[in-house]
């Protein structure tokens, strides 16, 4: 019980964690006798080797966050720093040269005639995906939130694409969307000549969006389902007794109560939509023309296909900035529309 | 708060260490002669190919105890060059790498590959002078040093499905040739007839798929066309010859329907098309389900021609075991092993380009097919177009050519746009 000598019972209240705070160390002066000097030295010696509860608490806390902290340092901050460094250099991998070019890559970015159409394609993809994905996921969740026999089967069916390999899923859809593929085969049964989905500008982007929506809508659907099941029954019943219609019940009661989940899914979906790559690489390779060349695909091409690692790094900084701005924006705007019970 | 400072300090120090390590290029201490591990990237994952490579490597290691292992590392063909360069960037470059001919100028001009003349010439019994001059042409650097061994020189040929031709009431491919109809117009007419009669496809330029446009060189060479001037500085996509060649292809895809249109696939080796242009090595895909024949590429308006696809094996100059890797390459491609490898990869050795060698190792092909098609194809074949910055040029051309693959395309206008897109890259 060494700590008893350094705490002041009754004066130092227990902290929420249960550990009392440390008392101020006693000071010695010239008038102190030998006994008091001895006690003071002994107390200092004990404090040196036995950390207080508070210090232990702090150390424990730091140890708990250490793995995550180191992970963020090594796998987020260091790569981020390196990306900034690479963006100021030009790296010829084959020749083995690494040359400092300053802001040259950023100047190239502003002069790149492709960056505008690439950003436009990225925006179209993201908006299309987010609107379709969230809308469909909410609709499915509402429909599947009923107590009907066999509903679990339907929930499983809609969720199952989430666990399928992304590339396998995309390859299969690539076959289905060929000119002579399954979708046009079905359309022909009803006398319709389908377009060449992946080869024509207007349909190629829509096709990529739809393939991605079907792949991941189940994930948002499950999150919405969980949120819907958390909406208090009594609130809904009270609204009904007050004469609220189904429409009013949904928009005035349900949506505000699940708005935190809507915020979460929208952030996840927007960030995910900005990082789409495999679907583009497999389905369209950025074409026709560059109509489906989104930012991640473009930066991959620049860095790994064309070996412009410096410029690719610059593009990844642009992507980082876009994700950061959109996330911060959503986080700030939440105050206006997200409902928190407390 | 002192703990937080300490932890932050440790974190930053570790980050700085990692950053410095990454910037340093990952240099490793030189491997000891007793413990050399060689790694060679390849794009074949064919078990027979890999078994043959392993047997040659085993024989080498038996005489070279300093080499502990030789690993053949198959990488997907589609991303092969990208993966190899990424490995180089990541500090895990292979010791040896297969290199596609379209990436050859980048690898050769950059100085990434070790000159091999001295090692190959100095290897007893190597017969360096036996290497064909045309086969090695792509692999010499500015100082005329050979920097990669032309491992596979495989001619592009035309396979024909005689059963489908007969089902459409047409003469077989050999009869077409005997009748003087073995030209692109004849092939397109026959392909259209097969499509009409059987619903199967006419002719397929394998692996083109309306994206890998350089495979179309096997067609446009028949018109005497080329994508750029010989010195690589001028775009010639908009030349009259190239325009006529693309008019022929567009007509075949959208009017005659003798060639599958964009977004439509047909596999010759599954019996889904009458003809296919591909490399001789694809003969291994023939299963005997239908009667087939092998012929040279059809004659174009500019006359007879042939094209080869090529792969080289190079030694990465900056690798820690570069000289050992070069020695292994000399063993891997010596006359004896070249003869073994010839069953899958047509060799660059003049003495081995004969019916005796190639027939013994290519049981699928008849001696006549080897003599009439394979050997002349290698002898006179021109390699597919290549250029420095081939990936970027390839992407620009693909992107611009997309406008051509619609029924009402403006062909001369699109080809002019192709030149507009790639002119800056050719000039650079």
Structural description of this entry:
The complex is a heterodimer of chains A (342) and B (428). With 342 residues, chain A is mainly α. Chain A has helices spanning 34-49, 53-87, 104-111, 115-143, 151-163, 166-176, 182-189, 201-229, 233-241, 246-257, 259-274, 278-283, 295-305, 309-337, and strands spanning 89-92, 97-100. Chain A is flat, with a radius of gyration of 30 Å. Residues 1-39 of chain A have low confidence and may be disordered. Chain B has 428 residues and is of the alpha/beta class. Chain B has helices spanning 2-23, 47-63, 80-89, 104-110, 117-122, 133-136, 162-167, 173-178, 184-198, 217-220, 240-255, 322-332, 335-341, 355-361, 367-380, 390-401, 411-427; strands spanning 36-42, 67-74, 96-100, 148-161, 201-205, 273-279, 292-295, 307-315, 382-383. In chain B, strands 1, 2, 3, 4, 5, 6, 7, 8 and 9 form a 9-stranded mixed sheet that branches. In chain B, helix 2 links the parallel strand 1 and strand 2. The interface between A and B is large, with 42 and 40 residues.
Q: Write the H/E string of chain B, N to C.
A: HEHEHEHHHEHHHEHHEEEHHHHEHH
What spatial order of strands do you see in the largest sheet of chain A?
Answer: 1-2
Largest interface: A-B, 42 and 40 residues
Shape of chain A: flat
Q: How much of the residues of chain A is beta strand, in percent? A: under 5%
Oligomeric form = heterodimer
Mean pLDDT figure of chain B: 90
Q: How many strands appear in the DSSP assignment of chain B?
A: 9
Evaluate the radius of gyration of chain A.
Answer: 30 Å
Mean pLDDT across all amino acids of chain A: 86
């Amino acid at each position: 019980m060494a700590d008893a000598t350094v705490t002041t019972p009754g004066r130092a209240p227990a902290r929420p964690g249960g550990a009392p705070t440390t008392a101020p160390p006693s000071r010695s002066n010239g008038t102190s006798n030998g006994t008091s000097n001895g006690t003071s030295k002994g107390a200092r010696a004990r404090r040196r080797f036995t950390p207080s509860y508070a210090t232990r608490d702090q150390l424990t806390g730091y140890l708990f966050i250490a793995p995550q902290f180191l992970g963020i340092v090594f796998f987020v901050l260091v790569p981020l720093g390196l990306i900034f460094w690479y963006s100021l250099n030009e790296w010829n991998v084959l020749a083995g040269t690494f040359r400092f070019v300053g802001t040259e890559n950023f100047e190239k970015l502003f002069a790149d005639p492709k960056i505008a159409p690439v950003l436009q394609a990225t925006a179209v993809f993201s908006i299309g995906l987010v609107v379709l994905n969230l809308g469909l996921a909410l609709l499915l969740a509402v429909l599947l939130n009923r107590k009907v026999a066999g509903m679990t089967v339907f929930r499983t069916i809609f969720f199952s694409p989430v666990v399928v390999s992304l590339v396998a899923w995309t390859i299969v859809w690539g076959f289905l969307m060929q000119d002579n593929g399954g979708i046009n085969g079905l359309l022909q049964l009803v006398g319709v000549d389908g377009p060449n989905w992946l080869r024509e500008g207007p349909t190629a982007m829509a096709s990529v969006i739809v393939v991605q929506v079907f792949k991941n809508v189940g994930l948002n659907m499950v999150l919405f389902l969980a949120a819907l099941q958390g909406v208090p029954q009594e609130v809904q019943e009270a609204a009904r007794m007050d004469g609220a219609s189904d429409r009013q019940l949904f928009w005035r009661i349900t949506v505000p109560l699940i708005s935190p989940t809507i915020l979460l899914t929208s952030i996840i979906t927007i960030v995910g939509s900005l990082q789409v790559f495999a679907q583009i690489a497999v389905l369209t390779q950025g074409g026709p023309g560059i109509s489906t060349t989104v930012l991640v695909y473009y930066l991959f091409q620049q860095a790994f296909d064309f070996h412009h690692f410096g410029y690719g790094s610059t593009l990844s900084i642009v992507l980082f900035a876009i994700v950061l701005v959109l996330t911060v924006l959503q986080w700030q705007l939440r105050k206006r529309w997200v409902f928190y019970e407390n | 708060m002192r703990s937080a400072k300490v932890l932050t300090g440790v974190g930053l120090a570790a980050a700085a260490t990692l950053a410095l390590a990454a910037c340093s290029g990952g240099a490793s201490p030189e491997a000891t002669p007793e413990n050399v591990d060689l790694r060679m990237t390849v794009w074949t994952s064919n078990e027979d190919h890999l078994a043959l490579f392993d047997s040659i490597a085993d024989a080498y290691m038996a005489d070279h105890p300093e080499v502990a292992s030789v690993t053949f590392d198959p990488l997907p063909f589609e991303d092969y060059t990208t993966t190899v360069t990424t490995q180089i960037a990541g500090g895990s470059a292979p010791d040896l790498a297969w290199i596609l001919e379209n990436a050859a100028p980048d690898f050769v001009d950059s100085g990434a590959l070790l000159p091999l003349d001295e090692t190959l010439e100095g290897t007893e019994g190597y017969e360096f002078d036996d290497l064909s001059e045309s086969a090695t042409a792509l692999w010499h650097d500015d100082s005329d040093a050979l920097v990669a061994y032309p491992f596979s020189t495989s001619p592009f040929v035309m396979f024909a499905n005689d059963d489908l031709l007969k089902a459409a009431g047409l003469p077989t491919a050999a009869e077409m040739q005997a009748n003087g109809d073995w030209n692109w117009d004849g092939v397109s007419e026959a392909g259209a007839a097969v499509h009409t009669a059987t619903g199967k496809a006419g002719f397929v330029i394998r692996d083109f798929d309306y994206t890998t446009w350089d495979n179309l060189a096997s067609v446009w060479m028949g018109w005497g066309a080329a994508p750029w001037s010989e010195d690589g500085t001028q775009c010639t996509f908009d030349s009259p010859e190239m325009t006529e060649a693309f008019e022929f292809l567009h007509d075949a895809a959208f009017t005659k329907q003798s060639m599958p249109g964009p977004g439509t696939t047909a596999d010759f080796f599954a019996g889904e098309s009458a003809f296919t242009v591909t490399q001789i090595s694809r003969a291994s895909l023939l299963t005997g389900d239908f009667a087939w024949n092998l012929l040279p590429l059809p004659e174009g308006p500019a006359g007879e021609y042939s094209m080869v696809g090529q792969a080289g094996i190079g030694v990465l100059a900056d690798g820690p075991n570069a000289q050992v890797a070069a020695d292994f390459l000399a063993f891997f491609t010596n006359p004896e092993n070249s003869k073994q490898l010839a069953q899958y990869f047509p060799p660059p050795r003049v003495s081995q380009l004969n019916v005796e060698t190639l027939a013994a190792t290519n049981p699928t092909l008849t001696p006549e097919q080897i003599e009439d098609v394979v050997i002349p194809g290698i002898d006179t074949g021109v390699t597919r177009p290549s250029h420095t910055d081939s990936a970027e040029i390839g992407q620009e051309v693909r992107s611009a050519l997309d406008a051509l693959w619609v029924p009402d395309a403006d062909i001369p206008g699109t080809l002019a746009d192709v030149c507009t897109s790639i002119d800056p890259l050719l000039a650079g």
